[in-house]
């Protein structure tokens, strides 16, 4: 074994021609086992190589790291519920002790706590989250009910992915192999920012965090022109002209500035305009899309450039799970989610969790109001028909029966097709467009859709309130491309405000998935219903939030942030006021959000929110509200102004 050979070599004095080779093999072994290496900056300016274990501890020398690795790899023998040694097949060695560690933290549950005695992945100890599929088959009663998950389990998978990504990047980069690895505080370090922890960027934090914030902060305003320049679609200082027709004479001409505006070349003194202002300055009609009438010298319009952006980044910017206009039906759990989730769907933390017998979601007993594991089958609050309360369903296999389950496109609750027909509604097949469960949800949906793409004035002069949402409608490609460009700008604002959030389950950027409405069969990662709300000033998005409205009962705002250069100007309060006004008009009862510890006094003191009690959370338990580890869920009741 590489680690043992290196430890023995160092115990013998550490001299000889094999030293460098053994060190290299030991480092490779640690990396393959989920360890990460980083450079630590000392006070005298020198940098030291540190070794971080999957459980979070760091060591200053390779020999100490190897000895700790051997210590962690020593696992006690597993026992059955009766205390006898288990005769099950041992976990794969994986050339490390990681498999044994995972086998210890995912434990079988005996009859004494109401569960079924079943190991992970079909009764065998395994070394990964995707081996075996206890969700497959027709008998959900065979599934293991409770699992114990520690932070080591998820962080190990996350860091292995980060190490693999770094190696791919290094092999494709012309940089020298001697280049130091990224710091744990660097935004490029995936393992430093798991999605379970929400970490806002601040300029008053430690030096490493401030440096990371400065490195990620865009140098220009977040306008559509800035996004096109960042993506190398629009050349800097490009010449533009406004034309009423493609072959017509230019009404006005200008030049793109590095700040993402258009500097007019007429006798107006070289004023800088946004795209809309430039079109109005040229005498354009206010009803048309300005980007469709602003042309580059090569003949392309800005609208065509935005379509090019949307198509060019289709693999990266538009996730494969983007929402479709067709109503959503409940399907079987996909194989990749067969072993269930890693964290609680309510509090996003680890521990002893209960698995739903219908979906891959997991829950702490206390988070769903249980004192012990129930006997027989158990279904989470979200997997129950809103009419009859039953969790029985027939998956979407092409047939539309009474037991087919359809989701409301606004409140996202489940309904049996037979229950819908029983209350007098006509539903013979899956609707081609969105399906809404009630008059209230229909009003909210139509109102929000009507606001998408519009700019509404606020109480602050020059600042407008806007609502954005991703769309896949091919017949509206030009409009969808404009929305996509603005969503890219909103995504950049969130990246400036928060440390990059990588979701271990999907290995994708969580902020990106929310902004672009990625769908998933795992409820806590299904972002189909999100809207992006924001404040614009001079054509630039300066404050951005992500909003989801679960009918009239509750709305959530998991992410909200303001660009550094516009902070301490009351922009966040202005956006909250606009949201409260909008939600009041829609008749929504309360707004909830997760507050990080350092901002909890601000939300509860200045913005009028209150920390949610357990009973408050149980009142909205049928809705999967986003939460992050270490945050406090807060709520604020809305003073309604809705008209019947």
Automatic annotation (TrEMBL):
Compartments where located: Nucleus
An annotated GO BP: regulation of transcription by RNA polymerase II
Domain PHD-type: 341-386
One Gene Ontology MF term: transcription corepressor activity
CDD domains, sorted: NAT_SF (cd04301)
Pfam families tied to this protein: DUF7028, IDM1_C, PHD-1st_NSD, TDBD
Keyword line: Metal-binding, Nucleus, Zinc, Zinc-finger
Entries under PROSITE patterns matching the protein: ZF_PHD_2
Record protein name field: PHD-type domain-containing protein
């Amino acid at each position: 074994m590489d680690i043992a050979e290196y430890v023995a070599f160092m115990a013998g004095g550490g001299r000889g021609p094999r030293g460098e080779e053994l060190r290299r093999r030991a480092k490779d072994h640690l990396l393959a086992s989920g360890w990460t290496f980083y450079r630590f900056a000392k006070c005298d300016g020198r940098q030291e190589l540190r070794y971080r274990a999957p459980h979070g501890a760091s060591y200053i020398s390779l020999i100490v790291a190897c000895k700790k690795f051997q210590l962690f790899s020593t696992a006690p023998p597993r026992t059955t519920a009766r205390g006898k040694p288990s005769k099950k097949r041992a976990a794969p060695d994986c050339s490390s002790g990681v498999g044994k560690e995972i086998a210890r933290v995912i434990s079988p549950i005996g009859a004494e706590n109401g569960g079924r005695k079943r190991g992970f992945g079909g009764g065998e100890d395994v070394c990964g989250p995707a081996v075996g599929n206890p969700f497959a088959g027709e008998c959900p009663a065979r599934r293991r009910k409770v699992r114990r998950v520690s932070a080591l389990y998820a962080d190990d998978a996350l860091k292995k992915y980060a190490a693999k990504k770094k190696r791919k990047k290094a092999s494709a980069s012309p940089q020298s192999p001697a280049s130091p690895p990224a710091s744990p505080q660097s935004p490029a370090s995936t393992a430093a920012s798991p999605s379970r922890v929400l970490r806002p960027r601040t300029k008053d934090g430690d030096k490493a965090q401030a440096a990371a914030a400065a490195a990620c902060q865009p140098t220009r305003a977040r306008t559509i022109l800035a996004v096109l320049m960042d993506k190398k679609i629009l050349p800097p200082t490009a010449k533009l002209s406004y034309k009423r027709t493609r072959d017509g004479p230019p009404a006005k001409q200008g030049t793109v500035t590095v700040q993402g505006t258009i500097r007019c070349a007429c006798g107006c003194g070289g004023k800088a305009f946004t795209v809309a202002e430039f079109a109005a300055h040229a005498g354009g009609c206010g009803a048309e899309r300005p980007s469709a009438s602003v042309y580059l010298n090569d003949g392309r319009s800005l609208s065509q450039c935005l379509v090019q952006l949307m198509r060019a980044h289709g693999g990266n910017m538009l996730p494969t799970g983007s929402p479709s206009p067709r109503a959503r039906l409940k399907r079987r759990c996909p194989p990749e989610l067969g072993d269930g989730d890693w964290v609680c769907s309510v509090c996003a933390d680890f521990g002893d969790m209960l698995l739903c017998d219908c979906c891959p979601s997991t829950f702490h007993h206390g988070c769903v109001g249980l004192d012990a594991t129930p006997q027989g089958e158990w279904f989470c609050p979200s997997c129950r028909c809103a009419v009859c309360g039953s969790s029985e369903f027939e998956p979407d296999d092409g047939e539309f029966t009474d037991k087919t389950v359809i989701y409301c496109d606004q409140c996202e609750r489940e309904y049996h097709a037979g229950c819908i027909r029983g209350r007098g509604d006509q539903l013979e097949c899956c609707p081609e467009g969105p399906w809404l469960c009630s008059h209230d949800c229909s009003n909210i949906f139509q109102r929000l859709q009507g606001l998408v793409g519009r700019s509404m004035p606020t109480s602050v002069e020059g600042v407008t309130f806007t609502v954005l949402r991703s769309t896949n409608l091919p017949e509206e490609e030009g409009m969808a491309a404009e929305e996509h460009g603005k969503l890219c700008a909103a995504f950049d604002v969130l990246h400036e405000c928060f440390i990059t959030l990588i979701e271990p389950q999907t290995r994708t950027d969580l902020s990106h998935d929310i902004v672009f409405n990625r769908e998933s069969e795992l409820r806590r990662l299904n972002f189909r219903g999100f809207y992006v709300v924001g404040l614009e000033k001079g054509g630039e998005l300066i404050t951005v939030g992500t909003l989801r409205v679960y009918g009239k009962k509750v709305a959530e705002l998991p992410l909200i942030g303001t660009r550094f250069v516009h902070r301490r100007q009351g922009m966040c309060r202005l956006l909250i006021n606009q949201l409260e006004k909008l939600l009041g008009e829609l008749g929504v009862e309360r707004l909830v959000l997760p507050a990080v510890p350092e901002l909890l006094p601000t939300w509860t003191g200045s913005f009028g929110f209150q920390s949610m009690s357990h009973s408050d959370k149980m009142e909205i338990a049928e809705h999967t509200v986003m939460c992050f580890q270490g945050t406090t869920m807060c709520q604020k009741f809305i003073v309604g102004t809705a008209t019947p």
